[in-house]
Design a protein that fits this description.
The complex is a heterodimer of chains A (499) and B (162). Chain A is an all-alpha fold and 499 residues long. Helices cover 73% and strands 1% of the residues of chain A. Classes of the chains: A mainly alpha (499), B mainly alpha (162).
């Protein structure tokens, strides 16, 4: 790969601005609306992407995909409703910032972290592609079981107000995630007699219920979602706030860089995805912080870490698809279908047979992120004003519109009812501090966890000790234990030093 | 009298989890080990965690530091009517969807919800409900052609634009 080749790729991608800008705008809309996933949008747009030449189709899909990851943080920050699972961790500090009247700053931090994180990791992927593609090969089912448990326990640690309650919520979610038929015999389990649950619990209904509906039921208590001083601040928003957000983000450039790399490496693992990456980055950010106790109260680092990581994932998930032919996530799988339709064969030979496409994907990503910052940054000032709408309008709007959106994933009215059920469970969990995010991550991980767990057990003929049979797996177990113990240890040390 | 923590509300999620785990175990009783191994593992850990949580709450109750009130779920009382009303209204909206179609049922649900939340001006209720239902029609029916049940409005508009 020469510099001339790369320069040519960049020039070719910039010339496709007429596809990149609509892709970005559509991705932003889809990302902001919970219930609209990039994969479903890409599926609906298949007639378009199949008709375009393959390079153009891929540029459009990549722009939409990256913008979607960026925009998921907008409702997470403004109304505590993540646009996608990857933005769930952003609610932890993003929403408290909004409540303090710093919604505009939080949005700018999120946009800059997302764009910079996505940009840096796309460039890094271009350089490291031959080596990165090997990571996925080292993680087998045993290691994946530990990675999943790692993701879940991290959330319990993050929900530091009560780790036990968060673990109860997380494992409750994990068990809900197992609802449906099993992978080997297709025997239905815990479906309550509903055929609609044979394929498992629909994630969009769970996401909408646990976050949007439950949050709207809680916000009914107040006239507005921001406190009086926050309201005054939100009313006075100006360009200076955007610049201030930019200044804070630039000051924390190193934070953006390393958390974006956390996202990149987790993204390379097939199936791990943006939600795990965002939580791992948030937890690591808190673990190494000088003021971990301030996380969750609305601090910039708490917005930067998950947003940089969930955009770092965008490059990562495409690596195993391009290099091994194994899609790193659902959206990557849809992209792969389009590429296969055009006769492209994924795998190591792609880099020899069609380097223009193989490397062009990541160049397209870089270009899309450059366009994105200029498209979305000026909008932060106006988006932040949504918090000035009274809850008398906002709550019914959120409940009814998101319940309607719950239909969009599978087109079942059943899913709308299910979202309401999750909304009530989420409300109870919310009011009693059983972390809803832990529950959601459990539901997301449930099917994957089962897949890897059963595979491991089948290989060992049912021997549970297989989970401790690999060196890498044991290192991951150690890290998991460390993540659980370290915060308590630090707390104890602080307590001792005060005495 | 010292202030007691209302622990009753804290019991709801563990009890739900316990009931679900019991149902899960019952539903997998006759299946092959591959179909139940994962559920048994997760369910056992969940039951263990719930047991620890219940023991922790039992200790609080025994110490007299808490009682079984459900206050966090009900309070503040003035929001309770709105909250329960919104849930019932949403149930009615989903149930009416098959007969009235998306646009009309969403319009009615939105209008009733705004009234329930305390919006008094009929003009405001009308235009907000019209805007929401109109946007939903445009996005889901006209553009995305989703499989939402069609009611009188959808049928009328389909005839007009056919």
């Amino acid at each position: 790969m020469s510099w001339e080749f790369l320069a040519g790729q960049f020039a070719a991608q910039f010339a496709l601005w007429w596809l990149i800008v609509p892709g970005i705008l559509l991705g932003i809309v889809v990302g902001i609306l919970p219930g609209f996933s990039p994969q479903n949008t890409l599926i609906m747009l298949l007639p378009l992407t199949l008709a375009l030449p393959v390079e153009q189709a891929f540029t459009f899909m990549v722009s939409l995909y990256c913008a979607n990851h960026l925009a998921g943080g907008v409702p997470a920050i403004l109304v505590r409703i993540p646009g996608s699972g990857g933005a769930a961790a952003t609610t932890l500090d993003g929403y408290p910032m909004t409540q303090k009247g710093q919604g505009q700053q939080a949005l700018v931090l999120s946009f800059v972290a997302s764009v910079a994180g996505g940009l840096i990791t796309a460039l890094a992927t271009l350089a490291l592609l031959p080596w990165l593609s090997q990571i996925g090969l080292y993680l087998r089912s045993v290691e994946m079981v530990v990675v999943m448990l790692f993701g879940l326990t991290l959330i319990a640690v993050i929900a530091a107000r009560d780790t036990l309650k968060a673990l109860v919520a997380g494992f409750f979610g994990l068990l809900i995630g197992v609802i449906g038929t099993d992978h080997v015999y297709s025997a239905p389990r815990a479906t309550f007699g509903f055929l609609e649950l044979y394929d498992g619990v629909p994630l969009v209904a769970a996401l909408i219920g646990l976050f949007a509906v439950s949050e709207a039921l809680v916000m009914i208590e107040e006239k507005m979602i921001v406190a009086v001083e926050g309201r005054e601040r939100a009313m006075r928003t100006n360009w200076a706030d955007t610049l201030e957000g930019l200044r804070i983000a630039l000051r924390m450039w190193w934070h953006i860089v390393w958390t974006a790399f956390v996202g990149l490496f987790i993204g390379v693992i097939p199936g791990a995805g943006a939600s795990i990456a965002a939580f791992v980055a948030y937890q690591q950010s808190r673990l190494w912080s000088k003021h971990p106790e301030r996380y969750g109260t609305g601090i910039p680092e708490g917005v930067i870490a998950p947003e940089a990581a969930n955009n770092g994932v965008t490059s990562g998930t495409l690596v195993p698809m391009m290099a091994l032919g194994v899609p790193g996530g659902t959206t990557a799988a849809v992209m792969m279908i389009v590429l296969q339709y055009h006769g492209m064969v994924m795998g190591p030979r792609l880099f020899i047979n069609d380097p223009g496409l193989a490397y062009g994907v990541f160049v397209a990503m870089v270009v899309a992120y450059v366009f994105m910052i200029f498209t979305i940054l000026p909008l932060a000032r106006y988006m932040a004003r949504i918090v000035l709408i009274e809850t008398t309008y906002l709550a019914p709007l959120i409940i009814l519109v998101t319940i309607v959106a719950a239909f969009s994933e599978r087109q079942y009215v059943f899913d709308m009812g299910l979202a309401l059920v999750f909304g009530v469970i989420g409300y109870i969990a919310h009011k009693t501090n059983y972390h809803v995010t832990a529950m959601l991550i459990g539901i997301i991980l449930g099917p994957l966890f089962e897949q890897y767990m059963v595979r491991s057990l089948r290989l060992s003929e049912g021997n549970l000790m297989v989970l401790f049979s690999s060196t890498l797996g044991n290192v991951l177990w150690g890290l998991l234990a460390l993540s659980l113990v370290l915060p308590s240890l630090r707390k104890w040390r602080r307590h001792e030093s005060r005495r | 009298m010292a202030h007691k923590t209302p622990l009753g509300a804290d019991l709801v999620i563990p009890l739900l989890a316990l009931a679900f785990a019991a149902y899960f175990f019952w539903s997998i009783a006759g299946l092959a080990w591959e179909a139940k191994a994962n559920g048994v593992l997760i369910g056992t850990v969940l039951v263990g965690l719930v047991a620890i949580q219940l023991a922790r709450m039992g200790r609080e109750l025994a110490r007299g530091a808490g009682d079984l009130r459900l206050d966090p779920l009900w309070l503040p009382r003035d929001a309770l009517v709105k909250r329960v009303g919104m849930v019932l209204l949403t149930v009615a909206f989903i149930a009416a969807l098959d007969w009235l179609g998306l646009t009309l049922s969403l319009f009615l649900a939105m209008a009733l919800a705004l009234r329930l939340m305390g919006v008094r001006r009929p003009a405001t209720i009308l235009w907000v409900s019209c805007a929401v239902a109109g946007a939903a029609y445009l996005l889901f029916v006209a553009i995305l052609d989703s499989a939402f049940p069609h009611g009188p409005i959808e049928q009328l508009l389909a005839r007009l634009f056919a």
